[in-house]
Amino acid sequence: MKRGDIAALVFVATVSMVIAYFVANAFIGGPTSESETVKTTDPITDNIVEPDETIFNEDAINPTVEVVIGENK
Questions:
Q1: Is the pLDDT of residue 67 over 80?
Q2: Which of 6, 22, 56, 71 is the most exposed place for a label (fewest CB within 10 A)?
Q3: Alpha-carbon dihedral 31, 32, 37, 38, rounded to 10 degrees
C-alpha cells in the first residue's frame, strides 16, 4: 500500500468512529446524575408469628397422608 492509501484509511476510520460516537450518544444518551428512590424491605427477624387458626387448624385434613379408596392391593 502507498503512504496516501494508509493515510486515507486512517482518516476514514477516524471519521467513522467519531460519527458512530455521536450517533450512539443521540440514541443511547450519556450517564445521568438523577437519583432514584427505592423501596427497602424490613429486616429479617427471628420472631415467629403463630399461624391463623382459620387456615391452619388441628382438625384439618393432612394432604401428605396417603388415602386409599377401594381395595388396597
A1: no
A2: 71
A3: -10
Distance CA 53, CA 13 (A): 74
User: What's the number of domains the chain is made of?
Assistant: 1
Instruction: Give the Cα-Cα-Cα angle 21, 25, 26 (nearest 5 degrees).
Output: 120
Q: How far is CA 72 from the centre of its chain?
A: 50
Provide the domain limits for residue 24. 1-30
**The three three-digit cell numbers of residue 10, written as one number:** 486512517
Residue 60 covered by a domain: no
Alpha-carbon span 70 to 68, nearest angstrom:
6
Residue 36 resides in a domain: no
Cell of residue 5, nine digits: 492509501
Residue range 8-31, pLDDT digits in tens: 999 999 999 999 999 998 888 777
